[in-house]
Design goal:
6 helices, mainly alpha, 42% helix, globular, 3-stranded antiparallel sheet
């Protein structure tokens, strides 16, 4: 009888010790994740990702970020840019931006900034590998066989980002408010290219 009680006590002690280790490990992982999110917020801020990936609100002092649509890209409820023949001709030599800077026209055509919020219409369903491929290799949705990301996305400037910085940016963007917004596909100005 005594032996059974001692073994039961030992098993309880072993179980409690394992439980304590798991809780400590979980707490440590959560703290590391929160530090990564904070670093990612800093990096996204100094890289000014919101300047292109967030619609603007127009004020008497000029456009400011629409915080209610942070990182949602070109607003799909907006009218797509309509260009005159003269503007199309100019686009062969210059880059033109929409007023809120979420659409750009240039020799490649018309491109719309992506939704990079945590919504599934943004990067909500993406894996880290997809995000890394999009940012460092310029692949649409981070797909290996995806089309190239179009200007003005400066992915070439990000191709040498350190893994931990990419992870931090990803962690931060995945922590943002999800905003449902399906951005339209780009439009080619060359009628022979679809």
């Amino acid at each position: 009888m005594k032996k059974f009680i001692i073994n039961g006590l030992i098993l309880t002690i072993v179980f409690s010790a394992c439980k304590g280790i798991n809780e400590t490990e979980t707490s440590k992982n959560e703290q590391q994740h929160q530090e990564s999110v904070k670093r990612g917020e800093y990096l996204v801020g100094i890289m000014d990702c919101a300047a292109c990936h967030t619609p603007k609100v127009f004020t008497p002092n000029g456009p400011i970020l629409d915080d209610s649509r942070l990182f949602s890209g070109f607003n799909s409820s907006n009218e797509k840019p309509q260009l005159s023949a003269e503007e199309l001709e100019t686009a062969k030599k210059w880059v033109l931006f929409s007023g809120d800077m979420t659409a750009a026209v240039g020799p490649w055509g018309i491109s719309y900034t992506a939704n990079i919020s945590s919504d599934e219409t943004g990067i909500g369903n993406w894996s880290f590998d997809q995000f890394k491929r999009a940012i460092t290799q310029g692949k649409y949705k981070g797909l290996e066989n995806g089309r190239p990301l179009l200007p003005p996305m400066p992915w070439q400037a990000y191709k040498d980002l350190k893994e931990e910085d990419l992870r931090a940016i990803f962690d931060y963007l995945k922590s943002t408010k999800p905003i449902e917004n399906v951005v339209p596909p780009p439009t080619s100005l060359n009628p022979d290219i679809k």
